[in-house]
Design goal:
alpha+beta; Beta-Lactamase; Arc Repressor Mutant, subunit A; 2 domains; eight-stranded antiparallel beta sheet; transcription
């Protein structure tokens, strides 16, 4: 595949250009997605609404001070001061910039009917409220694309995944509606595709995975799905076999990297 070279935050911002403003209320546009985040949360998280027409962070979730060293009101500011990107580890920053740029170009190169089929996950280290770096997953869950083929606004969820043991962590992954996933990892200052076989899971297994990732234990899952304790345990055992994992923590980590839910 074509090499993707790391870029500075200035290079990323200059490549994005300023967007037209259609005067849409972005929070209203994303409100349904924002309200549903908790239903599909795989770990503790916060969200950010990026206003690309005014080049600023327009809104953040109420809990953001629990996960970052910055006050909630201080988040509402311009991209151009590099505030957001400087929260990431210096060794990860330029690679994440390149991954963000790649994702945007890839999405906008698709016809309208295909844009919603792609999902991107990015991985890196971000400062917590104590100014210590911990591993996070950055998930792009929504974009507002105007009639000039420009992304005016983006909704991003950032999950804390520091407590999961994740071997061979990719830089980012891309999944489409056919469930074919590509993984990209930077090696020697290049980003390379990683070929990984992802197991197929049933609808019931997916339901159980979602509940496991949301922190439910076996009795709670059985009650939630109106099935027996032993049925849940059998599904969990089958999932561990399919994913070659031994513990629930390893299973959740596998799920996150491979976009199984």
């Amino acid at each position: 595949m074509k090499k993707i070279h790391p870029i500075s935050t200035d290079e990323l911002l200059s490549s994005l250009d300023h967007r037209n403003n259609t005067q849409i209320k972005y929070y209203s546009f994303f409100e349904e997605k924002i309200n549903s985040i908790a239903d599909h949360a795989i770990s503790t998280y916060f969200w950010i609404l990026l206003n690309r027409s005014e080049w600023k962070i327009e809104m953040v979730s109420e809990n953001i001070e629990q996960f970052t060293p910055t006050k909630k009101d201080d988040w509402i500011q311009s991209f151009e001061n590099h505030f957001y990107m400087e929260l990431y580890h210096p060794e990860d920053r330029e690679y994440l910039n390149a991954a963000f740029q790649f994702a945007e170009k890839t999405r906008l190169s698709l016809p309208d009917s295909k844009r919603g089929t792609l999902k991107f996950n990015f991985y890196g280290r971000m400062r917590d409220r104590n100014n210590e770096y911990r591993l996070v997953m950055i998930k792009s869950i929504g974009q507002y694309i105007n009639d000039k083929n420009e992304i005016e606004a983006s909704l991003v969820v950032i999950y804390d995944i520091s407590h999961f043991k994740i071997p061979n962590l990719p830089l980012f992954s891309v999944i489409d509606d056919s469930k074919e996933t590509q993984y990209y990892k930077y090696i020697e200052r290049e980003i390379k595709n990683i070929e990984i076989d992802v197991p197929k899971i049933s609808k019931r297994e997916k339901q159980i995975l979602e509940l496991i990732c949301s922190g439910y234990n076996t009795p709670q899952i059985a009650l939630k799905l109106s099935i027996s304790y032993y049925t849940v345990e059998n599904h969990k055992q089958n999932l561990r076999k399919k994913t070659n994992t031994k513990t629930s923590s390893e299973l959740v980590a596998f799920v996150m990297i491979h976009n199984l839910i």
